[in-house]
């Protein structure tokens, strides 16, 4: 599943269409295509892994799910996987194998935009309060919880926990205050490192623990285990990541 930094890059690619009107709509998404024609794209907003295209008097939510992707201007994938195509004067935006849903202004008002770890408005105090309310939650689940850390995915989860030396099955309430603060800070820090490395196609080169065989600190074998309620893959070192 594309993580927050990848969605951030998608927003940048789509930015050239802001201020433009929709000329043509294609794809197999179950939406009212005619309603979109001649609507001006006013703004693009992100909430974690979700992208909101905000038009005049209507908005659209796009979620790339597990295997979704997008293209700008050039269509190289088969039509059957095209969920939504939007043609503008300056080109076209194509979204494949994703969720497309129309939402109203009232729904947008319910979104906690300050929760997104890559937002300029990000408020770490909100994340801290949400962690405090879930003391029995494993940290591996907390990082993947899109209400607490919108945008964080499995790569970020693993790398953050290695950075701060915390075992993925540690309970949130057992973490010392410093480790809680580190968890929150590094969720954001690593997301922007991810973005930087993604831009230069060097992300995998910088992985320290994700899909690694040996710990880069002690050289011991990296453990791979499905952890937490979500049963997502965790990679960790039992020596250098403490279980709280």
TrEMBL record:
<dbReference type="InterPro" id="IPR015886">
    <property type="entry name" value="H2TH_FPG"/>
</dbReference>
<dbReference type="InterPro" id="IPR012319">
    <property type="entry name" value="FPG_cat"/>
</dbReference>
<keyword id="KW-0863">Zinc-finger</keyword>
<dbReference type="InterPro" id="IPR035937">
    <property type="entry name" value="FPG_N"/>
</dbReference>
<dbReference type="Pfam" id="PF01149">
    <property type="entry name" value="Fapy_DNA_glyco"/>
</dbReference>
<dbReference type="InterPro" id="IPR000214">
    <property type="entry name" value="Znf_DNA_glyclase/AP_lyase"/>
</dbReference>
<protein>
    <submittedName>
        <fullName>DNA-formamidopyrimidine glycosylase family protein</fullName>
    </submittedName>
</protein>
<keyword id="KW-0238">DNA-binding</keyword>
<keyword id="KW-0234">DNA repair</keyword>
<keyword id="KW-0862">Zinc</keyword>
<feature type="domain" description="FPG-type">
    <location>
        <begin position="208"/>
        <end position="242"/>
    </location>
</feature>
<keyword id="KW-0326">Glycosidase</keyword>
<dbReference type="InterPro" id="IPR010979">
    <property type="entry name" value="Ribosomal_uS13-like_H2TH"/>
</dbReference>
<comment type="similarity">
    <text>Belongs to the FPG family.</text>
</comment>
<keyword id="KW-0511">Multifunctional enzyme</keyword>
<keyword id="KW-0378">Hydrolase</keyword>
<feature type="domain" description="Formamidopyrimidine-DNA glycosylase catalytic">
    <location>
        <begin position="2"/>
        <end position="91"/>
    </location>
</feature>
<keyword id="KW-0227">DNA damage</keyword>
<dbReference type="Pfam" id="PF06831">
    <property type="entry name" value="H2TH"/>
</dbReference>
<keyword id="KW-0456">Lyase</keyword>
<keyword id="KW-0479">Metal-binding</keyword>
């Amino acid at each position: 599943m594309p993580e927050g930094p990848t969605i951030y890059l998608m927003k940048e690619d789509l930015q050239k269409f802001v201020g433009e009107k929709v000329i043509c709509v294609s794809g197999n998404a179950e939406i009212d295509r005619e309603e979109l024609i001649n609507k001006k794209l006013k703004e693009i907003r992100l909430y974690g892994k979700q992208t909101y295209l905000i038009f005049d008097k209507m908005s659209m939510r796009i979620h790339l799910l597990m295997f979704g992707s997008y293209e700008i201007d050039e269509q190289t994938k088969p039509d059957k996987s095209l969920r939504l195509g939007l043609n503008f004067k300056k080109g076209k935006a194509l979204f494949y194998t994703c969720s497309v849903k129309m939402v109203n202004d009232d729904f947008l008002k319910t979104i906690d935009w300050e929760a997104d770890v890559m937002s300029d408005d990000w408020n770490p105090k909100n994340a801290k309060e949400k962690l405090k309310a879930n003391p029995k939650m494993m940290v591996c689940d907390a990082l993947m919880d899109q209400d607490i850390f919108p945008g964080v995915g499995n790569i970020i989860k693993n790398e953050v926990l290695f950075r701060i030396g915390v075992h993925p099955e540690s309970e949130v309430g057992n973490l010392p205050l410093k480790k809680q603060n580190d968890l929150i800070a590094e969720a954001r820090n690593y997301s922007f490192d991810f973005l930087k490395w993604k831009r230069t196609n060097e992300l995998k080169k910088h992985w320290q623990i994700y899909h690694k065989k040996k710990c880069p600190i002690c050289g011991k074998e990296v453990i791979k285990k499905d952890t937490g309620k979500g049963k997502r893959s965790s990679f960790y070192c039992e020596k250098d990541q403490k279980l709280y």
